[in-house]
Design a protein that fits this description.
The protein is an alpha/beta fold and 256 residues long. It has a domain of 174 residues: Rossmann fold (3-Layer(aba) Sandwich), CATH 3.40.50. Helix content is 38%, strand content 19%. The chain contains 8 helices and 12 strands. The strands form 4 sheets. It has a 6-stranded parallel β-sheet, with helices on both faces. Helix 1 packs across helix 7 and helix 2 runs parallel beside helix 4. The model has no long low-confidence stretch (mean pLDDT 95).
């Protein structure tokens, strides 16, 4: 039986992994949230690994508030870069393979076609820069790793675009959503399945892109959410042509 540590277990991806874990009898999962195991604390990480052996570590711990990362970047770098560096060092010391979740925001969005794993990253905001630095630390420190870049992650858990649109629509609020950005909405449940399948295949090296393979704008995505819940006739949805955020965001973040 392979033993798998999941960090950041209370986030939406961690919760999706918890949901499917019982189906995989050949894997023993240990789920830890940031209060139980803080990846920014190297001493705590080392002590934890010293008393338990893991074949794999799936790192779901991340700072994902793109707007706040622009205003207080130190927080993002603490988790997404320094924390990932700590985890890579501890995993290497304990012969643990690392599966790390990264983002489409490592790209600048200037490309017209979907981004491949061979395209050169060039993040345009602090969140993307912090995530790319985490990727680089892993590549410098480890040999046995898998970096999975994904995009526009959503699920039934927590606060994300899907749940926000649904909650506002149920409350009868009219919606204004940008159509200036294009990407690939990705259900975190599907990403969780992809990760675990990778573990069972023992194919854990390099960089991988995973999405639900459907590209659209945020407006298109909101429209689909309303249709799914039969709310398209009762809620007014309009295109926001003047949507502005504090952080710059890639106009095209479609991953191939």
């Amino acid at each position: 039986m392979k033993k798998v540590l999941v960090t950041g277990a209370n986030g939406q991806l961690g919760l999706c992994l918890q949901k499917i874990a019982p189906k995989y009898k050949e894997l023993k999962f240990v789920f830890k949230n940031s209060k139980d195991l803080d990846i920014t604390n190297k001493e705590q990480m080392s002590s934890f690994f010293a008393v338990d052996d893991f074949d794999y570590c799936i790192n779901c711990a991340a700072y994902t508030n793109v707007e706040q990362a622009e205003k207080t970047p130190d927080i993002a770098y603490e988790v997404n870069a320094k924390g990932v560096k700590n985890l890579a060092l501890v995993c290497r010391e304990n012969n643990t393979s690392l599966i790390h979740i990264s983002t489409d925001y490592v790209f600048d969005g200037e490309k017209k076609e979907p981004y491949t794993v061979d395209d050169q990253p060039n993040p345009i905001n602090e969140y993307g820069k912090s995530k790319l630095l985490g990727e680089k630390y892993i590549q410098e420190i480890m040999e046995d790793y898998l970096i999975i870049r994904t995009s526009w992650l959503y699920s039934e858990f927590g606060k994300n675009f899907y749940t926000t649109i649904w909650e506002k629509a149920k409350a009868g609020e009219n919606l204004s959503v940008t159509d200036e950005q294009i990407g690939c909405p990705t259900n975190a449940n599907n990403l969780a399945l992809h990760i675990v399948e990778k573990l069972t295949q023992n194919n854990n090296f390099g960089i991988d892109h995973f999405t639900d393979n459907y590209s659209c704008t945020w407006f298109d995505f909101a429209q689909k959410i309303l249709i799914e819940h039969g709310l398209q006739m009762s809620v007014q949805l309009r295109r926001d042509k003047n949507y502005r955020t504090f952080a710059r965001r890639p106009l095209n973040s479609v991953l191939k």
